[in-house]
Amino acid sequence: MNQQETSKSRLVWEVGKTALLLGLTSFGGPIAHLGYFYEEYVKRKKWMDEKTYADLVALCQFLPGPASSQVGIGIGFMRAGVWGAFAAWLGFTLPSAVALSVVAVWLQHAPSGEAGWMKGLLLAAVAVVAQAVWEMARKFAAGRLQATVAIAAAGAVLLMPDAWSQVAVIAAAGVIGAIGWRKNVAPSSSSAGIPPSIRRSTGLTLLSLFAVLLVALPLIRTWIHSPLLALFDSFYRAGALVFGGGHVVLPLLEAEVVPQRWVTANQFLAGYSAAQAVPGPLFTFAAYIGMAALGWKGALVATTSIFLPSFLLVLGAFPFWHWLRRHPRFQAALAGINAAVVGILLAALYDPIWTKAVKGPADLAFVLGAFLLLAVWKWPAWAVVLVSFAGGLWHSFVQ
After folding, report:
1. Which of 118, 133, 158, 131 is nearest to 363 (CA)?
2. What's residue 73's pLDDT?
3. Average pLDDT of 293-310?
4. What is the pLDDT of residue 329?
5. Cβ-Cβ contacts under 8 Å for 21 (sequence gap 6 or more)
6. pLDDT band at 396 (very low <50, low <70, confident <90, very high)
7. In a 10 Å sphere around its CB, with 0-12 CB exposed, 13-18 middle and 19+ buried, how is residue 260 labelled?
8. How would you class 227 by CB atoms within 10 Å of its CB: exposed for 0-12, middle for 13-18, buried for 19 or more?
9. pLDDT tens digits for range 305-322
10. What percent of the chain has pLDDT over 70?
11. Which residues contact 76 (CB under 8 A, 6 or more apart)?
12. Which long-range contacts (CB under 8 A, 24 or more apart) does 200-207 make?
């Protein structure tokens, strides 16, 4: 191994080790993760300047998928190439993926039904998603037109509760935004800080692969009846079409995995609550479902496939970021999509979350208390989930 290869290996190792530490300690969701990244990668290690970091965050906010994981992938790539991107993703993702896989095994052997701990997790999910809907609505659906799109999207997916209807709603909202809001969006005039480290031809190849997989996987799934292939298709599609943060993966995945009977609705929501209580990206909820459905192979396939679109999109978009940030029609389409995902998440708040969890006045009082802790007292989601779990466990003992 020559000196250049040794230096590259050291950089990859450094990226992976730093990301692993962040994966073990980064509680609080994507916004908090970006703060941790800023402190570690920009302020402490000085791997990039503030302008480049801000530009990378802006790019990842434009793209579907988990923004914080995508920022980590981008930092790893800019630091140590493709292997650096993989090391950054693996280090940040591994702790929560392993933890949620263990939770899936435990839940399979634990008594469920009306167990108190299960009830506590289900009610915590109501409060967590309600707070996410509230915050997203204030940001993405504050105007009259945006609110109309959000409500229409909620009604559409409630009347047609399947994954493809959600995809159609997202696409329609993008078209509406591109046509109706183009004149209301000002293109960015600042110069891009991301260095053009990938050729346009390579970026176009990666983006084309993203699109080909999105179209081809459902077709291949109809020809080849393999549980792992079906899992790969479902989670790839979820990772490719989720705008607005990790919470929005909930309705897309629920429409895919519960009808397939990979998990029950209660197991799905309990695992979603558990995902709030571990550090790292919320998308590692995929590891929980994969483990519950098909064991360790399922956990590996689900986790890999839900993050694969992020690799293809982030690295593929690097050469085109200058154009994207200056194109008002693209930004207007994104505004329409963001309004629609508020509605999709609102629909998920009602069904399956509310309908499965809230059965009476006592349950509603519990949810209101948890929402108060989240929205007013600003407790982190993981703390509210743990308190809800403990409260439900205590209730089962005193009954």
Report:
1. 118
2. 97
3. 97
4. 82
5. 91
6. low
7. middle
8. middle
9. 999 999 999 999 988 887
10. 91
11. 15, 19, 84, 85, 86, 87, 88, 89
12. 200/319, 200/320, 202/316, 202/319, 203/315, 203/316, 203/317, 203/318, 203/319, 203/320, 204/316, 205/316, 206/312, 206/313, 206/315, 206/316, 207/312, 207/313, 207/316, 207/317
Contacts for 201 with CB less than 8 Å, ≥ 6 apart: none
Alpha-carbon distance of 19 to 281, in angstroms, equals 12
Backbone angles phi, psi at 376, to 5 degrees: -105, -50
Residue type, 235: F
Q: What angle, 0 to 180 degrees and rounded to 10, lies between the N-to-C axes of helices 67-109 and 265-276?
A: 130
Say which amino acid occupies 277: A
